Amino acid sequence: MAFTPGFAVDTAIKEDSVGEFEEWARSVLDLDELRGRWQLMRTDERRGNAVVSIVLLEGDDPDGWDMESALRRKYGPERAQAELAKFEGMIDGEQTLRRLIPMI
Known about the structure:
Blueprint: E1 5-14, H1 18-28, E2 38-47, E3 50-58, H2 67-75, H3 77-90, E4 96-99
């Protein structure tokens, strides 16, 4: 891993949207300002009809990970809103942000 993650975001992805979500993350979230500072992982955990993904984020300030602002800067307000709506349509429930604290 080329960075030290400071946060983990737990997101349940609807089973029928997993492939679409992974493609969306590869293409839409390829933001210059965030490149090399995050990593998407799929777990083997399921929640009902959803597959749990974890996003590892670098840094110690959660405000540095405002996805809506980053999308607006790259795509403009209209496309940013459309991309966020796609994302929201693929997730099942709320995301959970966890601060990671190094132990060793």
